[in-house]
Amino acid sequence: MAVAFRNVTKVFPDGTVALDGFELTFETGEFVVLLGPSGSGKTTACRILAGLEPATSGRIEVGGRDITDLPPRERGMSMVFQNYALYAHKSVYDNIAYPLRVRGVPKQEIDGRVRDTARLLQIDELMGRRPGQLSGGQAQRVAVARALVWQPDICLMDEPLSNLDAILRLQTRTELKRLHAELKTTFVFVTHDQEEAMTLGTRIAVLKDGSLVQFDTPREIYHRPASRFVAEFIGRPAMNVIDGAIAGGRFRADGLELALPGRADQAVGLGIRPEHILLHGRPKEGAQAFRLDVKELVEPDMLLFVRRGALALVVRTKADLAGLDALEPGAEVHLELPGERLHLFDAASGLRQP
Amino acid sequence: MRKPWRMVALATLVVVLVIALTPYLWLLMTSFKTRLDALADAPVWLFTPTLEHYPMVFLDKGYLPLVGNSLIVAGVTTALSLAIGVPAAYVFARHDFAGKEDLFFFFLTTRMAPPISVVVPMFLFFGYVGLIDTRTSVILAHSTFNLSLVVWMMRGFFADIPREIDEAAQMDGHTRTGMFLRVLLPLAAPGMAATAVLCFILSWNEFLYALILVAFESRTLTVGIPGLVTPHGTLWGQVAAVAVVATLPIIVFTFLVQRHLVRGLTFGAVKG
Prior knowledge:
CATH class of chain B: Mainly Alpha
Number of strands of chain B: 2
Structural class of chain B: mainly alpha
Structural class of chain A: alpha+beta
Strand order of the largest sheet of chain B: 1-2
Number of domains of chain B: 1
Shape of chain B: globular
CATH superfamily of chain B: MetI-like
CATH topology of the largest domain in chain A: Rossmann fold
CATH class of the largest domain in chain A: Alpha Beta
Strand content of chain B: under 5%
Radius of gyration of chain A: 24 Å
Largest sheet of chain A: 6 strands, mixed
Helix content of chain B: over 70%
Largest interface: A-B, 26 and 18 residues
Order of helices and strands of chain A: EEEHEEEHHHEHEHEEHHEEEEEEEEEE
Strand order of the largest sheet of chain A: 6-7-8-3-9-10
Helix content of chain A: 10-25%
CATH architecture of the largest domain in chain A: 3-Layer(aba) Sandwich
Largest sheet of chain B: 2 strands, antiparallel
Distance between the termini of chain A: 32 Å
Oligomer: heterodimer
Number of domains of chain A: 2
Shape of chain A: elongated
Number of helices of chain B: 13
């Protein structure tokens, strides 16, 4: 069964265009991540799918059925909110049981399902508490339990991890992955954190300015970013992109020249990820000499910020690489940019060149 | 707090309490004094209490039904103001529409005109529709000023509830109406209790509208008191007896919702 955004546009009363002809189709059972910077329209897309926000134009379809005008309760979807939105006047048990009660599930069934879900999320000890007596991580689990207990077709999550501290965020991330593997429910997960997106998603939809830029598996997004925007958004530190031009089979930029045989003459951005640059201690055929500016240790890796004229690059390498400790700022390093690791982006549109 | 300051604070508290409670104590004592004691030149603190005023005024003079009138007027006024004002306050807290803040301010302006300037047109209007000397007229009159109070206070309470709660309720399967009745109202209940008590007290204490609009069977308790000022002098003992009874529900209610009342008065209306 396919879930589809068809040419969805959302304009807010103040004139902000949150979604602009947004198109996205995914299958149920997937863990879809909507990823983008703030203002990219990812939350709006999620809320339109939920029915909490009407689309200005366009359609939402589930399994070929137009659900654009259905109220939230008839869409078979649940939602986990960033601030959890638990009912403060109800106990944890009643919070989890609430969607079942509202949806008229027979009383004798409710208790079993609430307890099963609570056990799944390891919150069965907290059933009698009020939301005010829970830690952030516990409240988060209760919110997830409430969203999963009635077995919705799709579970929407709007930045559910951003209020958790770093360690808890990692744990919860792993939990969510486990839940998805166990339950096979469709998840739509909104985040601005590329690392969350890469680890959780079976496919990632990257949004920019209200449009879909790329919808692919994390691997594909990392290795074949569809545009310069995606390339620079995914991966930390961001991909190096050097502005220059190809002429006569050679790429030329301020401070760098590389052989790029078989390419048409054009202005391009040449991209390479910091972790794909090879570092050499002494001059080597095909390697370029740079001057080391700053060294940053990010165990088990080392980041090297290097310069050559106006050109600045970041290199990521293993911290225990032989001879690395001896390198001081100002030293000369030799960098090799392997041809198979290079990405070319059109200078004007930013789109990937095949 | 250091000890000397504690003493100062305590002393201040005692002074304030004496100033605030002495008149009430005076009232209470007067309701048990004979006419002679009540009118004594030098205040009498020790006296033989009499129980004659209470049965006299409430039974012989027929003031008991007035308590009922006051209860009905204040109760219905409160219910009516809440029934209309609470949904309106929710809309003010959650939805945007053209002229929203102007309309909201307009509700407040209804309280700015001195009541005496409104009461004559109101009298003429109620006379025209044949409602003079009915509890309905007083209820409607009292609802006019209570409605703005409800809208102003409750907007703040609804604004305090995160919007995501509305959305969570809808995702959990509620219609918009279900969400409002089953989720938001229970969450706003403490605020509603405080608002209700305030409405009740304002209506219960109100004198001017009630005095002009009703004269006989439908009189409220406050309107009954001037009837005890007779050509032969004011019946202070009976006035005090009625006044003591009139203050009872207010004391009870205030203690019941004291905590919410303070919160409601300081946060509710300001935050909106």
